[in-house]
Amino acid sequence: MMWLRVIYLTVVLTVATLVLLPVQLIGLCFDLPLRRRLPRYWHRIACHALGIKVHVHDRLETAKPLLLVVNHVSWTDIMVLGSVADVAFIAKTEVRDWPVFGVLARLQKTIFIAREQKRSAGAQVNEIAQRLADGEIVVLFPEGTTSDGNRILPVKSSLFGAASSAAEQVPGELVHVQPVTIAYTGIYGMAMGRYHRPVAAWPGTVGLVPSLLGLLKAGAIDVDVSFGETIPFRRGDNRKALSVQATMSLRAMLGFSLRGGWRKPR
């Protein structure tokens, strides 16, 4: 059965890519608004093919410029979040050269940053600020790496420098920062506990192929995407204070989702 799912996934994604790729390339070439929306359809198809059912709670902030601060659990987070919003991701430069994922990242016009290269930091921040000013929704994973899905890892406050620098460059000198959590909460139609969560999580100790095969073997996976209360960040505000406030929101929201808060009658 698992190999049938592998074949199904391969066929579905191949067809979807062949159909959408030419249109996306045209959108990228002429910088058309279409190039922001089209990846959402590909991500939705990918989630369906992988057996991932996404449940959205509360709303995406409509005010711009908007920076989403999101916990990072697995490589599937990209497809999960990309299926519910037209977003641009911030990723480390190494991702650009990854097989398959690097190509997909470039097609979605991901913002690549080299954290260790301070000389290029100014240009990278300027690109983030420009994308925010252009009305794009930019996604930041402040943990800097994936986790086991059961907790929020220590957040790197330096990464919030993107919001600080953007606030100095965007109109109104204000960036809206919205915490968002991704929680893998169901497997086989039942609540997912700590024992099963590694099936969905990708903490980095497992290769990509074994992770993919484990996910396909598991069958249907439920994931909760929760949008939190937006934090207004103005020019001159403290990025470390923003980091602390965003981290507190992420921990509270993730804990609520993992405890089955969205499954209980409200």
Shape: globular
Percent range of helical residues: 40-55%
Q: State the separation between the terminal residues, measured CA to CA.
A: 38 Å
Largest sheet: 9 strands, mixed
Structural class by SSE content? alpha/beta
Number of alpha- plus pi-helical segments: 9
Unreliable stretches covering 5 or more consecutive residues: none
Number of strands: 9
Q: How much is the average pLDDT?
A: 90
Strand content is 15-25%
Order of helices and strands: HHEEHEHEHEHEEHHEEH
Rg measurement, Å: 18 Å
Number of domain units: 1
Transmembrane segments: 6-30
Pathway: Lipid metabolism
Enzyme class: transferase
GO molecular function: 1-acylglycerol-3-phosphate O-acyltransferase activity
Provide structural commentary.
The protein has 266 residues and is an alpha/beta fold. The protein has one domain. The longest helix has 28 residues, at 2-29. 44% of the residues lie in helices and 19% in strands.
